[in-house]
Design brief:
Elements lengths: L1 H21 L6 H4 L1 E2 L3 E5 L6 E4 L4 E6 L5 E9 L2 E6 L3 E9 L4 E9 L5 E6 L2 E2 L16 E9 L3 E11 L5 E5 L4 E5 L5 E9 L5 E8 L4
Parallel strand pairs: 1-3, 2-8
Antiparallel strand pairs: 3-6, 4-7, 5-6, 7-8, 9-10, 9-11, 11-14, 12-13, 12-15, 15-16
Length: about 210
């Protein structure tokens, strides 16, 4: 009975984390979103939303190509908007702000490819985990050295570690490549690595989930 309760509790925590990560959170929106751009290229993601940050609250969003952007996966949260890019192609997005101003984005979604040859946590390389998914998981915790090497044509532009304490408190810390980060042994979280393709300007956000349940 105790084993069953523990298993159900773990599944609940994982579900909560998954929903929390999908929805853009105001507290850490500045850290984990892509600022508004008229022309934006994103790598197609199968497991995670790409968050866009605007200078004001967004009231609505429309897309000229709904085959590229699933309208059911556009989540508005104050100035942050989560979009789920599930197919490659092009579309024009129009966001209406609280002031009535319309923000237009020419969005190009390209096929996802693993942008890293090395994603090391201490001595273990997790790069192969990003072959098909941009959001794998690991069980490492404590003080860990993060070393990332981009593949040819890519560059690392941003690194963050975020964790939740299940009471609504969120902490986000920006860190430099080849530096140590204290990964919580108690709370769920994730390491975000934002990479950009030098030729196409495509942006990919790799998310490595951390925490005791993983």
């Amino acid at each position: 009975m105790k084993h069953l309760v523990k298993k159900l509790s773990t599944l609940f925590i994982v579900a909560v984390l998954a929903v929390t990560m999908l929805l853009p959170t105001t507290a850490n929106a500045q850290e984990r979103t892509i600022k508004y751009k008229q022309n934006l290229v994103l790598s197609k993601e199968n497991t995670f939303a790409s968050n866009l940050l605007f200078p004001e609250k967004i009231k609505s969003c429309t897309s000229t190509n709904k085959n590229i952007l699933n309208p059911d996966m556009v989540v508005l949260d104050e100035k942050s908007v989560a979009i789920y890019t599930n197919k490659a192609g092009k579309t024009e997005l129009s966001f209406v702000g609280k002031s009535g101003k319309i923000y237009t984005i020419n969005l190009t979604v390209v096929k996802y490819s693993n942008p890293v040859s090395k994603f090391k946590i201490n001595s273990k390389n997790y790069a192969s985990k990003f072959k098909k998914s941009s959001m794998p998981a690991l069980t490492s915790s404590g003080k860990q050295k993060i070393s990332i090497k981009a593949k040819k044509g890519w560059k690392v532009v941003d690194l963050h570690y975020t964790f939740y304490n299940y009471s609504g408190k969120i902490k986000t810390k920006k860190f430099k490549n080849n530096r140590s980060v204290n990964i919580s042994k108690k709370y769920s979280g994730f390491i975000d690595a934002t990479l950009k393709n030098k030729k196409t300007n495509a942006i990919t956000i790799l998310t490595l989930c951390t925490g005791p349940q993983f």
